[in-house]
Structure formats: C-alpha cells, structure tokens
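pinned: reference chain
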Amino acid sequence: MNAEEIVYTEELENENTGLKKQNSILNNELSYLKEQNEWFRRQIFGQRSEKVIDPPKPPPPLLPGFEEFFANQPQEEEKTKEVAAHKRKKQNRHGKDKISLPEDLPKETVVLDVSEEDKTCSETGKPLVKIGEEITSKLAYKPGSYYIKEFIRPKYALPEGEGINVSELPDSIIPKCRADESLLADILVKKFVDHLPLYRICEILSRDGIGVSRQLLSQWVLKIGTALSPLYFEMIRRILESKNVFVDESPVNLLIPGKGKVHKGYMWVLVGGDSRDPPHRIYSFRFDRQHKHAADLLKDYRGSLHSDKYGAYENLANLKLFNWCPCWSHIRRKFFEAESGDPSFRKWVLRKIRHLFMLERVAWARSEEERLMIRQEKEVPIIDELIKKIKDRLIKGKLLPKSKFSKALGYFCGLIPYLKNYTKDPYSRIDNNVAERAVRPLAIGRKNWLFVGSIQGGEAAATILSLVQSCRALDINPREYLEDILRRLMSHNSQQLNELLPGYWKKSTMG
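pinned: its structure tokens
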C-alpha cells in the first residue's frame, strides 16, 4: 500500500470506530427510553401491585399403587351460573353484600293498606279477614338535625344589695363561642376525616338554613388547633419514648398570603409504639424538606427508626444515635420497576425478597425469642446471599448507568450496612408500611382542600390530624372522642394529659 491508501484506511477505521460508539450510545438511549415508556404505560394501564407470582407447579406424582384410589375420587366442580353466551364463575361473597344494622336504630312505620273497596269480596260482599302482614324493611336516611342548646341560669339577689348569685357556664374550648362542642367536633371530622374543604361545609350548613362564613369556620379550626396543642406535644413525647418509630413525609401546598401563589411545604409523619402496627401517629407541618427538620423531630430518639433512603435519615443514622432500619418495600419497588435490565436476575432478587416477607409473617406470629431466632437463622442468610450476588452483578456486569436496573442495584448497595438491623430487635419491622399508610389521608385530603392557608393553619391541621387519625387507627369514633375532650380539656389536670389521649380514652370509656 502506498501512503495515500494507508491514510484512507485509517480514516475509514476511525470513522467505523466512531459509528460503533455512536451506535452503542443510541442503543443505550433506546433501551433507556423503552424502559421509561414501559414504566409510564404500566402507571396508566398496568397493575400497581408489586406482587410477583410464580407459574403454577404441576401436581406431585402419585405414589405407586394409589393411582386407582385417586382416580375414583369425585372431583369438586366449580359453581357456575349461566349468562348470555358464556359461563361465569359464581362469586361467593361470604355475606359481604349484606347490611348490618344496630339493634337500637329508630324505626318509622309507613302503612300501605288497600282501599276500603278492596277490603270486601266482590262476589259475596262480605268483608275480608286480615290474616297477617307483609313487612319490608329498608335502610333510610334523614339529614342531620341541628338544634339550639339553651342554658337557663336562674339569678338570685343577695341581701342588702350585695349582688346576685348565678351559676357559671360550662367550660368552652373557645371562649364566648356560639357553637357547641358537638358542632365543632362535627366540623373537624368533616374536614380532617372526610376531607371536605371549609367552603363545602358552609354549603352543607346552608342547605339546612344555617349561615356560617368560611372565615369564621377557619377561625374556629385555628383556635381549636392551638387549644389541643398540649395533647399534641404529649403524644410526641410518648411516641419518642417508644421502641419503634416509623417516619415519612409528604408535600402539602401552602398558600402565600397576599401573592396568590402556593409554596410546597411538607407534612412529616411519625408513627410510634411497641406493637407490630402502632396506632398513635403525629403529623408535623414544616415550611420545606430540609434535613434540619428530621434532626429536630428525632433529636431525642434512641430506639429503632424505620424510613426510606432519604438523606436526612441516613445522615442521622451515620451518627449512631438510633438503630436505622431502611424499608425493604422500597428496595423491592426499585427492582420491580427495573423491567428491562436483567429479567432473570431481577426475578431472582424479587423472589428472595418475597421469601423474607413470608418469613416475617411467620416470625410475627411467634414469641419475641422465636422471632429473633427465625430472623437470625432463616432471614440473615438470605440477606447475605442478596448482598453478595448484587455486589457482584453491579461490579462485573455491563449496565446502563441511567437504567432503572442499575439504579436499583446502587440503591441496594448503598444500604448494605443497615439491611440486617431489623433482625437485631424483636420489635423492629422489615418495612416502613406503617408510615406509608399514615400518609394516605394526606394524599386524599390535598386533592380536596388543595392547600393550607398559612403556617398557623398547617400547624393546626397537623395537631387535629394527629388526634383524629390516631382515633381511626384505634377504631374510635373521632366525633365522639373530639366532643368529649373538647368539653373536658380546659378544666383537666395538666399533669394527667395522658388520660385524654386516644389510647387511654378508649380504655377508660369503651373498656
């Protein structure tokens, strides 16, 4: 070859190398976009459950000599019902479609009698004999009734013009308020349990001829939130004294006064207790999501903290102030969403994580000692196997750096020092689902009331949410609870506030 041919050949090789690199980049980008498209398609049209089901296994072979016995056994037939063009499996609802009613429900009788003419025989003219009644019962509804509670206080003149003697009015949660505690409790339940914004509550009242402005309702809510704050702080203190705390945070829009704009604030959720599913929960409104808020909420906590991999919790965990238990449900979700990386390896990881959750269900049905034994003997080897293979896959395998599969591997490896922490304490859990469930009312509520009107409004909402959502977790009627404590709080001994907390209140009033 002459010099020109050599130069031309090198140019072709360089161009070919460049095209290969470009092709590799485009293929990686295509795989990434396909993965993103598949994720969006599943969010809109696909299943949201993260459950992975293995294909059905064939039935085990019969033992020699028993084939004839099993061949004669009658096969259970599925119940079916005939519908147009096909057969459909008959649903067995086990009584779920029935209505259960309280025994003391008032009844209103409507008599539907035949006409007087029809009470005589058309042929003989003799009156017909009544032999019984057909009774059909239906559950009906009447709008909630409002009434005026009138306090009459007789006045007695003291001798020699020394004044008058009259009894005191009962203590009120809002001094000189024209609304009774029963009405205030109903308003709080409508807003913070049924998620109705205040303007809808105004409309509900107006349909019964009661005019209350939205501004006045807002003032009542703010004042009640301030009055209930001692109970709120007592709940925080007790939650931080428990062995387990579950924490999460969720955005809540904050209206900026005078500007008509909204700022993204955050409602932090703390759930604490020593049971598997502790009922008491605290909501704390903060202006933003800075790490200092997590440090402020958890500065005095020394138990086991359950959370996702948010940096604020990870930084606190590095200080060794508490036992940090990162959530395995979040780890599972990362691999569940990584569909285009390595399907066989992803399926293996999900199967192993499912085994951990299955063992946890067994462990929580046993005593504390047996629970720790199951975790150390059965679950720790599975975690060790996951750590070894995922580290090898991340180091040795060819991965797209932006792919969900690569991010799932990195997410797991970043938590390796803490993955077995839950196995060290019998009260710790493998997941943070308790806090995840406590966040759901916020997700439902903000779709209705859209934003909080001020920082003070956010703090009042956090206080009232903490009480009513704890009531829901304890199966307490929040309206009854609120009406009772609103009447008693102002005169109650400040050294015995625990008696008004939902858990103690349930024991003392419901047994």
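why pinned: The first helix runs from residue 3 to 45. The mean pLDDT is 84.
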